Amino acid sequence: MTRLSLLCIAFFVLSKGLFAQMQMGIVHDNYNTTENVRLNPALSVDPLPWLDIHVVGFYGFVANNFAYLPRNQTSILRGQFPDTLQFDLRYDRAIFQGEALLLGPAFNLSLGQFSIGLSLAQRNYAIGRQIPQEVARGMIYGFQQDELYGRNFETGDFRIKSLSWGEIGVNVGMIAYQSGNDMIKAGLNFKYLFGLGSAYLMAENINYTVINDSVTEVYELTGEYGGSSLGFYPGTGWGLDLGVVYEKKLDNVTSYVPHSRSSGCRYTDYLYRFGISILDIGRVRFSGAQSYQRRLDQGQLIWNNYDDFRPNSIEEAVEGLDERFAPFITEATNTYNSPLPTSISAQFDYNMGYGLYVNATAVYGFRYKRKYGAERMHLLAVTPRYESRRFGASIPFSMNEALQPGIGASIRFWYLTVGTDSFIPWFFNIDVKRLDAYFHIKIPILTSPECRAAKGKKWSVKECTAPGYKTSGKKVEYGKRK
Known about the structure:
This protein is mainly β and about 475 residues long. It has one domain (about 5-480). It is about 10% helix and about 55% strand. It is built from 6 helices and 28 strands.
């Protein structure tokens, strides 16, 4: 890889400075069904829009706990960035992760008590865990640094991994139970995956000394390395999301059928709902001449002219390491599996009336210390929001594994949604360790043909009253959507 590409990879990260990673400002909005499904497939059932059409969208962030863009040289809104990164030397270990999600056409269609949908997406993950400080600096600027010369380093466990893939998803859902004010919904999203590339280095230990600007002595290198060259279809696989949601409705739903004349073409809102989902079960299997998996045990050498080793592709990197450490390679294949960033999520949403809601969401990402795939970070978020047919706004508050708080903002106006889960770097003069943003263009069609054909019928919220909301002894009309 070139030095510039290493710089980009090193900052394409997310760390203990992470605050949110799943578009918390949009995934709860009841007018964004195609995005709800990404958090819990059961939210595709009994949706507000009869047909929700997603046109295009993008979500990405970069952050870490070690390298940063200095405040006196950076302005995000003006497009001003420094030529070099600076380092927070308080951390002995660097942790990073980055995600980029390109969303293509998608739709979700309500079929009464059932739902069906289709989605296209391209996803990218880059992660690093427990990378020693000197290795992180060397990744960015090389090891030709005076303070490294003559010193012995021993890394212990650390891992650097990336995974890029496309997916075609089909989601289905149904009302599994409805009686009185209780409704239980279930859904799944099956995804066919085509791998686009990957790279990984999973070190169990590296013991080395940087002698000078051209010589490094490696006393031990134990671990695994490899990947697959970027391209279309070097790997294939499958993925699965599962979800279930319980809703406490504001009216009896025993015979309720969404988006139908039999239910008066009126939506019965909920007082609260609780959901649980398992996301990204599955893996991508890479194989072929340009896919590589290597196991190295107790590798040793005196590496002369190490600075000349600047591979521009996975193939060049693997071939260069193979050539130097050949006697110590104990396993070499062209096939390996990369797990998806599997996680489990729980969500609670409370309807306060007048279009106001508050949501609490927790996400736990599973760890793959000895596997090549992507990983998702843990997350806890609380998101108050307002939503109506043409306008929505939310302010997600979130917290990470290190108990560091963050704040974001999202605005939906007609067909456009823009937002960020951390707006502080955009508007305030601070050292930037992370940055994220997203946008979506979509077309929600609220009323079904069946309801449009009925005389004067339009899909609307049932005019229920919220328990406990009173004014001058009279209950206030609740949940009415314009």
